[in-house]
């Protein structure tokens, strides 16, 4: 199993988190924290499907790589998101720094969900 890697070790704080889909308990913790905040959970993915998606979840098709940064920026700047889960997020260093800064300013957590070498089946509290 892959290990969980955090750029921010505390999931209750805003920032950019990298984790592998095999670490479903950590993902569930992030989702539960999101529910307590009463803000939106966004899922940007082409391959994931969620059963029993909670009322506070918005599932969107992941945009093309050249549009992903602007989508993230707009979602964060709108001020209604608490958590954004992105499938296999890849950003350049400048974009990562900008997203981290926005996450801190708007108290948003962006989760880079690594789906490589998986069967894309997740079990969670949602």
Describe it for me?
The protein is of the alpha/beta class and 126 residues long. It has a single domain (14-114), classed as P-loop containing nucleotide triphosphate hydrolases (Rossmann fold). Helices cover 33% and strands 24% of the residues. The protein contains three helices and six strands; from the N terminus they run E-E-H-E-E-H-E-H-E. It has helices spanning 24-37, 65-77, 93-106; strands spanning 5-6, 15-20, 40-44, 57-60, 81-87, 109-114. Strands 1-2-6-5-3-4 form a six-stranded mixed beta sheet, sandwiched between helices. Strand 1 (5-6) and strand 2 (15-20) form a beta hairpin. The protein starts with a strand and ends in a 12-residue tail after the last strand. The model is unreliable at 1-12 (pLDDT under 50).
Walk me through the topology.
Blueprint: E1 5-6, E2 15-20, H1 24-37, E3 40-44, E4 57-60, H2 65-77, E5 81-87, H3 93-106, E6 109-114
Parallel strand pairs: 2-6, 3-4, 3-5, 5-6
Antiparallel strand pairs: 1-2
Helix pairs in contact: 2-3
């Amino acid at each position: 199993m892959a290990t969980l890697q955090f750029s921010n070790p505390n999931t209750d704080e805003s920032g950019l988190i990298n984790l592998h889909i095999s670490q479903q308990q950590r993902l569930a913790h992030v989702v539960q924290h999101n529910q307590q905040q009463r803000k939106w959970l966004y899922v940007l993915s082409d391959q994931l499907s969620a059963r029993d998606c909670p009322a506070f979840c918005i599932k969107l098709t992941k945009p093309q790589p050249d549009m992903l940064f602007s989508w993230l920026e707009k979602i964060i700047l709108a001020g209604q998101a608490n958590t954004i889960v992105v499938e296999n997020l890849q950003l350049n260093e400048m974009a990562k720094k900008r997203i981290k800064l926005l996450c801190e300013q708007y108290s948003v957590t962006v989760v880079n969900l690594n789906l490589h070498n998986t069967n894309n089946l997740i079990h969670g509290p949602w």
